[in-house]
Design goal:
Number of strands: 13
Number of helices: 15
Order of helices and strands: HHEHHEHEHEHEHEEEHHHHHEEHEEEH
Structural class: alpha/beta
Distance between the termini: 15 Å
Strand order of the largest sheet: 2-8-7-6-5-3-4
Radius of gyration: 22 Å
């Protein structure tokens, strides 16, 4: 069989790695496979599997971190709850681009949003006395979603269930969520907005419904804003002006927002995020926390027990970098969204090529509106499962990731735009056309 990458070589490496039908393959496995293929075949693989930022960081951040290091912060422990500068900057940034008020005290920098998610899950675990038999022992993940979050729950000991939004939008979503919440075992609901990997975005009406349910059933909404304001259908780049980033924070006091420095700010390698708890949740006293740890409030437990024991805070200099970017964005001197619009341009090009060659979108609309073009999108090829498509595209030198492992009930793959360059466009088009022609 003739394919862009030698068929026998690809088959041999897949067998050597023991990947079989790819049902157990992780993103790292696929990345390792694609790297080996490049080495053994001498052909370039188009990497669409990894959700890693591919743009240069702002000079504002680099200069701020250089200045911080030169001033000697490397010799100083940063406070567990963050330096005053980042707490103030985060609070102002939330007001400027989300339009809600969160006290600086309630904004805690973490070593990437992933540490923020782990600490939040851990706080919820202990606040609900899960180890002692507390009934609220389960996290509800609105899916498809970030697979690591389910792993974090497993590590902590939290049960988790998923709800694929493919068949549930609008009032149907709210009704389904309430059906699940009535069981009484859900302590929190997690989702990303825009969603990884489908890129659908919840509407204000949906968020209003989710917020109302959170209050009614006393569950915490964990809103992952990893792709902050990257719904490019609306211009969300102007501080202190509508439209703002959509959020559940307008509709309930039971929320935690995770703001990441990785994607919107292209600062992934320095591992910086901010966990923003509502003022009410931060100060809420949980008897289980008071009894076991001597710190009853959710926010104080998060800061002075969890962040302290996890890492004694977040790297000092990177807090200065994130602060500088947030400050410049709030002042209007730095449009942090301008650079990342490149992801949208890449997505549009790839979608056009794929749709012209027999592919179709899996999550194909957003409450009747076309999806935004952004960091991710999802596609399928008729007659093929997501696992089959992932494997077959490797023979064409295109690395993707199946939806099966992301909580989706649909067949297809996730496409990430971050490593796709303009120079790869002709090669991508050539290979997709060859893939389609072999099946016609």
């Amino acid at each position: 069989m003739t394919t862009p990458l030698d068929y026998n070589t690809v088959t041999s490496i897949i067998d050597e790695m023991g990947l079989g039908d790819f049902s157990q393959a992780t993103i790292r496995d696929i990345q390792s496979l694609s790297r080996q293929l490049e080495e053994k075949t001498g052909e370039r693989v188009i990497h669409l599997e990894m959700g890693v930022p591919g743009l240069k960081p702002s000079e504002i951040a680099l200069e701020a971190e250089r200045e911080a290091l030169a001033s000697g912060v490397a010799t100083q422990y940063a406070p567990n709850g963050g330096i005053p500068r980042i707490k103030q900057a985060s609070s102002r940034f939330v007001k400027a681009f989300i339009g809600v008020d969160i006290d600086p005290l309630c904004c805690v920098p973490t070593t990437g949003s992933m540490q923020g998610t782990f600490a939040s899950f851990t706080a919820i675990y202990h606040a609900n006395n899960v180890a002692g038999g507390g009934k609220k022992d389960t996290v509800l993940l609105i899916q498809p979603g970030f697979p690591v979050q389910t792993t974090q729950c497993d590590v902590i000991g939290l049960k988790h269930v998923g709800l694929d939004i493919h068949g549930y939008r609008g009032q149907a979503l709210i009704d389904k969520l309430e059906e699940i919440l009535k069981e009484g075992n859900i302590n929190s609901i997690v989702y990303s907005n825009p969603n990884n990997p489908s890129w659908v975005c919840f509407t204000e009406e949906e968020l209003h419904g989710i917020g109302a349910l959170a209050t009614k059933y006393d569950v915490i909404i964990l809103e992952d804003l990893a792709y902050f304001a990257m719904d490019f259908r609306r211009d969300l780049s102007h501080p202190f002006e509508a439209p703002y980033q959509a959020t559940v924070a307008r509709y309930t006091d039971n929320y935690v927002l995770w703001i990441s420095g990785s994607k919107a700010f292209s600062y992934a390698g320095q591992r910086i995020g901010v966990t923003c708890m509502s003022n009410e949740l931060y100060h809420r006293v949980y008897p289980a926390l008071q009894e076991k740890f001597g710190v009853g409030t959710f926010g104080d437990f998060f800061t002075n027990r969890l962040m302290y024991t996890l890492s004694s805070g977040t790297t000092h200099s990177v807090q200065c970098a994130m602060s500088a970017m947030m400050e410049a964005a709030c002042d209007g001197s730095y449009n942090f969204l301008e650079d990342v619009k490149e992801y949208g341009r890449r997505a549009k090009y790839m979608k056009d090529v794929l749709l012209a060659n027999g592919f179709c979108l899996v999550y194909d609309n957003d409450m009747g509106a076309p999806l935004a073009d952004g960091f991710y999108f999802t596609v399928q090829y008729p007659g093929m499962t997501g696992l089959q498509l992932t494997k077959e595209l490797m023979f064409y030198g295109i690395a993707v990731f199946p939806l099966d492992t992301m909580g989706s009930t649909q067949q297809g793959v996730r496409i990430c735009t971050s490593f796709f360059s303009k120079e790869q466009e002709p090669l991508f088009k050539e290979r997709i056309e060859a893939f389609h022609a072999a099946r016609c």
